[in-house]
Specification:
This protein is an alpha/beta fold. The protein contains seven helices and four strands; from the N terminus they run αβαβαβαβααα. The protein has a four-stranded parallel beta sheet, sandwiched between helices. The radius of gyration is 18 Å and the shape is globular.
Length: 264
């Protein structure tokens, strides 16, 4: 049975309805969320896509936008030692985003919002979107909004380090798709004194980025209540940025959040 949000996803519409929506002034959202990227023993490989599509659906409702199919492959080099995890080269991913963006804008959408759930994807997406006029495209980074950052500081004080399949991301998934989470298999990564950027490894025990499970942080601290608070903050942050941009207001560029310092 179709839901109200279905009518904002172009893959579920006929082409002439897409054309009518664009003519009536709908903006466009392009979600970026991996579907073949390890997320520990306890979360599914499509964790990022689940988050991207849920957030895109909520944003589309709030600002009148069409949601294009999620870009489910991208630049994720930190995970390739874990079976099934796929990473494109940065240049291939950048070119793909640029070509998709050009096609969407070519149909006359008043604005394109690229909703990015990744960390390593941020720079290639920025480079891709730099090819367009600044008043046409906006790169939405889901972890950089002020409300979300405040919620993390308030609710995730116990986790000493983390950036992947950790307390934060697992909490999000417990709120979004609890049936896809196996908390009995959640396993914290080894404690580290300081975070070292680089790829995670399940085999190099001496590496500062060793993780048998693939998590980086402590997912056992996650709760649905934390996830609901994080999601509410994200949606409000994204809506504020997107609505201002679509209305023609200047949106200040965000610097990468300090919460997720390891580039994954």
């Amino acid at each position: 049975m179709a839901t109200e949000t279905d009518f904002n996803f172009v893959e579920r519409l006929a082409w002439d309805e897409v054309a009518r929506r664009i003519d009536r002034g709908a903006a466009a959202i392009l979600p970026v969320g991996a579907a073949a990227k390890q997320h520990g023993f306890h979360l599914p490989m499509d964790t990022d896509r689940i988050q991207a599509e849920w957030l895109a659906a909520r944003l589309a409702e709030r600002i009148d936008a069409l949601v294009w199919p999620t870009v489910a492959y991208g630049y994720y080099p930190a995970f390739v030692e874990y079976a099934g995890s796929i990473s494109l080269s940065a240049s291939t991913f950048e070119a793909m985003i640029a070509e998709i963006a050009a096609a969407i804008l070519g149909y006359g959408c008043r604005a394109l919002l690229v909703l990015d759930t990744g960390i390593s994807t941020l720079t290639p997406v920025d480079r891709a979107l730099a090819r367009f006029d600044g008043d046409e495209v906006l790169h939405l980074r889901i972890h950089d909004g002020p409300r979300y950052c405040r919620a993390v500081v308030a609710l995730a004080e116990q986790q000493g380090h983390g950036s992947h399949a950790d307390e934060l991301e697992t909490s999000l998934m417990l709120a979004l798709a609890p049936q896809r989470v196996e908390m009995s298999r959640a396993e914290a990564s080894p404690v580290v004194n300081f975070e070292t950027p680089g790829s995670l490894t399940p085999s190099q025990v001496s590496s500062p980025n060793y993780s048998r499970s693939g998590s980086y942080g402590d997912p056992t601290l996650a709760t649905p209540a934390k996830g609901e608070a994080f999601l509410a903050a994200m949606v409000d942050d994204l809506t504020e940025q997107a609505a201002a941009f679509v209305a023609g207001e200047v949106v200040a560029k965000k610097s990468p959040g300090a919460i997720r310092s390891v580039s994954r």
